[in-house]
Amino acid sequence: MKRPTLCSQISASEITPPELYARRREFLTLGATSLIASSSLISSWALADTPNKLVGKSNPQFSTVEKLTSYQDVTHYNNFYEFGTDKLDPFQNAHTLKTEPWAISIEGLVKKQKTFDIDQLLKLAPMEERIYRFRCVEGWSMVIPWIGYPLSQLIKACDVLSSARYVEFISLADPTQMPYVKSSILKWPYTEGLRLDEAMNPLTLLTFGLYGEILPKQNGAPIRITVPWKYGFKSAKSIIKIRFTETQPTTSWNLAAPSEYGFYSNVNPKVAHPRWSQSTERRIGTDLFAQKIKTLPFNGYEQQVGHLYAGMDLQKYY
After folding, report:
1. CA–CA separation, 98 vs 315, rounded Å?
2. Nearest CA to 220 among 210, 230, 229, 211?
């Protein structure tokens, strides 16, 4: 099965300067009215009284000093196969996604099936802003300021039975909203999964926004997970069901191409994809001819998650 390759980068003139993001709190304290009148630089930013603003308290424990990928690139260069296979397709096509109303049903090995609507989920725990590295299996990467809270907070509210070992995430698959669901690229709905201890790890983020705003539709609105030590396709988008199971769930890419996309899919520079190396990556927003970055085990999060895989053969459990 052929997956899309890295396409041409967006021109530098179109990229929002990362410094603007770093200064956003300063801008907000100066007053929205005067800023709008005096500077066009912040025209792309949601201010406190706009509906797409989402505030998260910065958590320095989950951060990095690496240069942020621009908002332009984060929201224009995506994999979201329900809206197309080209990297620009989700930005161009995801406007048809209806994110209100939205709810997530909790199923499987729980004391009682529950449903949380988006407002309940937003209020379940304090929002945090976390800057994570994000690595795609295709060899490109980004550094993104996500907003959300640990997935463990939701799991604790689900009354999970002791027999549960895995968590399955099921995305929306509505052909009236998502044109490529009519295709045979994958078996729909898109399904992903984690071991329960992976899902409970503090790094696993139930994600509602990025760059100070609610999630754009092309980035998995209104709710997704972000699992920063795994390849990007493990971070399910536009989730409508979470199911707790005793056995390992069947996931979409593992089902489509089991020799290429394992269930665990931890970032591992020593385990090559059958068609390309995983030892280096290209940071989106840099010149195509720039030197590639050396890929770190577990995407640089080995200290936080390495213990989850102690004693496992990571060549076998790829």
Report:
1. 41
2. 210
What distance in Å separates the CA atoms of residue 190 and residue 173, rounded to the nearest whole number? 7
Residue 63 is which amino acid?
S
17 and 172 in contact (C-beta within 8 Å)?
no
Query: In 3-state terms, what secondary structure has residue 122?
Result: helix
Q: Is residue 40 part of a domain?
A: no
Cα separation, 130 vs 49, in Å, equals: 23
Structural domain boundaries enclosing 156: 54-309
Number of other CB atoms surrounding residue 175 within 10 Å: 12
How far apart CA 113 and CA 27 sit, in angstroms, is 44
Q: Tell me how many domains the chain contains.
A: 1
Would you say residue 142 lies in a domain?
yes
pTM, two decimal places: 0.84
Distance CA 144, CA 200 (A): 21
Rounded CA separation 105/239 (Å): 9
- Each residue's pLDDT expressed in tens, for the chain with a length of 318 residues: 433 333 333 333 333 333 344 444 333 333 333 323 222 222 232 333 456 899 999 999 999 999 999 999 999 999 999 999 999 999 999 999 999 999 999 999 999 999 999 999 999 999 999 999 999 999 999 999 999 999 999 999 999 999 999 999 999 999 999 999 999 999 999 999 999 999 999 999 999 999 999 999 999 999 999 999 999 999 999 999 999 999 999 999 999 999 999 999 999 999 999 999 999 999 999 887 788 999 999 999 999 999 999 999 999 999
Handedness of CA 251, 253, 254, 257 (dihedral sign): positive
Here the CATH number for the domain that contains residue 101 is 3.90.420.10
**Does residue 49 sit within a domain?**
no
Alpha-carbon dihedral sign for residues 242, 245, 248, 252:
negative
Query: Does 12 map to a domain?
Result: no
